[in-house]
Amino acid sequence: MKASKKIVIPVVIAILAAILLFSSVTIVPAGCSGVVLTFGKVGNHVLKEGLNFKIPFAQSTVIVSNKIQKQEVEAPAVSKDLQSVSSTIAVNYRALSDFSASIYKNIGQDYESVILLPAVQESMKSVTAKYTAEQLITMRAQVGEEVKDALVEKVAEYGISIEKFNIVNFDFSQEFNAAIEAKQVAEQNLIKTKTEQEQVIVIANADAEAIRKRAEAQADANKLLAESLTPEVVEYEKIQKWDGKLPAVVGSGSILDVSSLVGAEADK
Fold this sequence. Notes:
Blueprint: H1 2-24, E1 25-28, E2 32-38, E3 41-47, E4 50-53, E5 59-65, E6 69-74, E7 77-78, E8 84-95, H2 100-106, H3 111-128, H4 133-138, H5 140-155, E9 160-172, H6 174-228, H7 231-241, E10 249-250, E11 255-256, H8 258-267
Helix pairs in contact: 3-5
């Protein structure tokens, strides 16, 4: 009996020591932090990842993830010109380890639905209301940056870091989409008509320029011809073209046949 007691007591002590040892340590996984609760009360001290010690039986640890997580949020809004806007927002975020105790104490582990998602929707609505629907389309990148800045400002005080923000879907009502499509078609037709008109004008200007140049060339030729027709040249041309017959001349009272006069003079 005494021998069995000698065996049981050390075993019990060893078991109690093992329990005490395991109750004194906690392991925080990588990318996480440990929030220490002392008799259920949240303390300000946050355990880092790895092996940590705590008061056995009096303290427990709640693991809070500090890894980057992703949420897609539906964020309906209204533009400045009262057009309905349907948006899907993708947000990459994480809880900062130094704020893990505060987040767990004041918000809880479901801080995404309590703080993050409402902040995304509120930021989207406030920024969208500053732009018309057409501006939201043409200035989408700028709108996205403004929404992200507004979101960062809203959640920073809670210890939530926005790592990446992206507007996945950005759509309007069917009526507005149809109006935009009709406007684009009209603009394309206007550009086509304007281009065709410009081509006609170019061709007309080219033809007019060609006519002007031909007229100038003809005028220059006429001027040169006129300058070259001296009295001597004119007489020379007359002689070259004369067929040997004397023309009739006009007198003061009648028309005389010069050739007959020349014949009569020869008979004398």
